[in-house]
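Lab channel / #folding
Pinned by the channel admin:
"Please post every new chain as: sequence first, then the structure tokens as a reply. Keep commentary short and put observations after the output so the thread stays searchable."

First post following the new format, from NK:
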Amino acid sequence: MRCHQFYKTLTRRDVLRTSAAGFAQVALAGMLGQQAGAEDTLAPNAAGPTQWAHFPTRAKRVIFLFMWGGPSHVDLFDPKPTLNAEAGKPLAGSSVGSDAKQLGTLLGSPFKFSQHGDSGVWMSELFPQLARHADQMCVIRSMHTEGNAHGEALLRLHTGQANLVRPSVGAWVSYGLGRENENLPAFITISPPRGHGGVQNYGSAFLPAAHQGTAIGSAEIPIAESVVSNLGNRRLSPALQRTQLDLIQSLNRRHLQDATTDKQIEGLISNYELAYRMQSTMPQVMDLASETQATKDLYGIDAKPTDNFGRQCLLARKFAESGVRYIQVSTDYTWDHHQKVQEGSVAESAKVDRPIAGLLEDLRRRGLLEDTLVVWGAEFGRTPMVENGDGRNHHPKAFTMWMAGGGVQGGLTHGSTDEFGYAPAENPVHMHDLHATILYALGLDHKRLTYRHAGRDFRLTDVYGNVVRDVFA
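Reply from TO:
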């Protein structure tokens, strides 16, 4: 059927149903479903430079490296000599501020720790490549959150809350700052988790659907085999797709004119246009063939066991370079070491150490690190007590995250835990504080970045959160 026949024989609903796939149905399911609750239109700067910044901007973008499952902080970044000395003994609750009489049997770390860089940041032997960047890292040892289960903890990490359906961090960033590149979304998530909250971890909830993250693949699928769903249509030429889109958009705009205001249609118009433009831009950014062999080697691409995560990190750099505001890179669900924490930590660290070090180096060489905030972390840490003979359980009471670039003070270790790594001892940082701090680095005041929905003003940090200003240079 040729395009002019649409005008004569089909209704507007028919056109939408038959031609939507012709110009990239990127996130259309989420877009249509989640727009229903929106009570505002797109941010006024949806495709332009920062207009809502409340503070001087330290970072223009964020790359979040998500270690799904919860790495053990006492085996990676938080050395505990007392834990090792007391290994095999029971941990009394009173010694760590708990009401429980006994918390379990202590399990020491088998890994050697040493200080690195001029600043003397402590790291275990599992990150030899990352250790070269110690002076760029700000290590926060006093993180804590709520949620002993992965599902709750992931939602708190990604959306700030586990009750109701809340917008994700990336969606808030997109809403606050808009798109820097009109041909790419402001928020991209590479290999996101399909479990433990699934699409909620990168969804827009009641924010306009244009701010939902665009997903590339999923955590269980090698990134080399992943694509953006329905990015193009080989059956139709770009010119014909443009003609179809112009028809649909004219009908949408007529509806909008008649209705005066319709948040769903406003979002629809914006997303259709972005989806069409992405067809020419996204494949170029995702193509790694143009990268030099030296760059690929830096990330560990085409080498075991670093190829998959190396490709993800290189894509993150390319998206950052292309103007994407918030990029998340996720491992598979492989850090959940209820058993064999020693073997598991060795295996998982080997997959990510070289790619992460390569990402920091590549950003530095290209002059991007100074205004790119790199965040590493997970939903929680692991207990200092043993589980199942040689594993560690979930532990939201204390864990470690680190940041680099984006104006943070490199070589700084902020906060501390008690002598067993069970609870924060100095300068505790809650997940709400982390979110407030990330927004602050981007020039956004977490108390003022609000969205009115269902009769109240919502924000990422709800009624909580304090900016950890000490981490900035």
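NK: The domain at 3-471 is CATH 3.40.720.10 (Alkaline Phosphatase, subunit A).
TO: also worth noting, Confidence is low (pLDDT under 50) at residues 1-10, 12-50.
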